[in-house]
Write a structure and sequence with these properties.
The chain is α/β, with parallel strands linked by helices and 280 residues long. The chain has helices at 23-33, 50-59, 84-89, 108-120, 136-147, 160-169, 187-193, 235-242, 251-266, 272-278; strands at 9-15, 38-44, 64-67, 81-82, 94-98, 101-105, 128-132, 152-157, 177-181, 196-199, 223-226, 246-248. The strands form two sheets. A six-stranded mixed beta sheet has the order 2-1-3-5-6-4, with helices on both faces. A six-stranded parallel beta sheet has the order 9-8-7-10-11-12, sandwiched between helices. Bound molecules: NADPH dihydro-nicotinamide-adenine-dinucleotide phosphate.
Length: 280
């Protein structure tokens, strides 16, 4: 049982909605096990009050917060400083109160890569990758892949304009980037020749929904990832597994980003495997 005292350091998570979040259970359990004087609370923020919510971190002794949908971009104007990676991605998922200065970090980028290394022992260097989706999570993943030196990247999205805009924002990496409409028939060729394919759309949250009409392209040599973790095996992953591909769901990314956030909050490193075990 967590014991809150006058010395307890407070962290939390801003979001709307927030009732579904697994983060308070995860972080509080680790604080108890490691005997750390911290507490982690869910904070439902009214979107019209995001500025007040961010400034309240500074006005109090709160150590920091995680930030989830829909505030990852909205918090940025109210921060004092941004970690270079958060600045490049244009999204913040962790805010740290450093003696009254609010610093924004993005742990999704390295969290995704940590998951890939830990689960697949895979070097991304030189690989050809396809990312489905062009929202906030897809953007963080594309940055992670490009930072790790992938050989080529294709981005496919329902709204082609959003895929193109994401592609343009990544043009500083000197790597060929193609963009596709998710229903473009020529996408199949890219999918079948890719080494790693990642679903970063929200299609699959509902059982039996799949972002692609056909999965006939899957080969056993391929690595297929869906960053959705509930359900733990989406239709996309299940069909890829049937074809013999190596599959991974969204738990490793969730664990990776939480590992990094945990160390920003507490100053202590926690091994990925211990944190992932805590997620069940
Ligand atoms: P966004 O709202 O920013 O993006 C949603 C994406 O899904 C867009 O590319 C959107 O396309 C696409 N999409 C939505 N509905 C449909 C549809 N019916 N058909 C085709 N495409 C669709 O969300 P996020 O990027 O923040 O999150 C995406 C997913 O990633 C969520 O399921 C979330 O749970 C998961 N996630 C997992 C994390 C983890 O740690 N494992 C971390 C963060 C997110 P369009 O642009 O055309 O609207």
């Amino acid at each position: 049982m967590h014991r809150i005292k006058g010395t307890t350091q407070v962290v939390g998570i801003f979001g709307n909605p927030i009732h579904h979040t697994a983060s308070p259970k995860l972080h509080n359990s680790l604080y108890s096990k490691l005997n750390l004087d911290f507490v982690y609370i869910p904070l439902l923020v009214d979107p019209s009050q995001i500025e007040t919510a961010v400034l309240s971190i500074k006005a109090t002794t709160m150590r920091g917060v995680n930030v989830t949908v829909p505030f990852k971009e909205a918090v940025i104007p109210f921060l004092d400083d941004l970690h270079p990676l958060a600045e490049q991605v244009g999204a913040v998922n962790t805010i740290i109160n450093s003696s009254g200065r609010l610093i924004g970090y993005n742990t999704d980028v390295e969290g995704f890569c940590m998951g890939v290394f830990e689960e697949w022992s895979l070097s991304l260097n030189g690989l050809s990758c396809v990312v489905l989706g062009a929202g906030g999570a897809a953007k963080a993943i594309c940055y992670g892949l490009l930072k790790e030196g992938i050989g080529s990247l294709s981005i496919a999205n329902r709204s082609l304009a959003r895929a193109e805009s994401l592609g343009s924002s990544l043009s500083s990496f000197s790597i060929p980037i193609q963009t596709y409409d998710l229903e473009d028939s020529s996408l199949i060729e890219e999918l079948s020749s890719a080494d790693i394919i990642i679903n970063a759309t929200s299609v699959g949250l509902k059982e039996n929904d799949c972002p692609l009409q056909s999965m006939s392209w899957v080969r056993p040599e391929q690595y297929v990832c869906d960053i959705i973790y509930e359900p733990c095996e989406t239709q996309f992953l299940s069909l890829a597994k049937d074809k013999g591909a190596k599959i991974m769901n969204g738990i490793p990314m969730l664990a990776g980003q939480a590992c990094l956030a945990f160390s920003y909050f507490t100053g202590k490193n926690i091994p990925y495997t211990i944190l992932k075990k805590e997620l069940g």
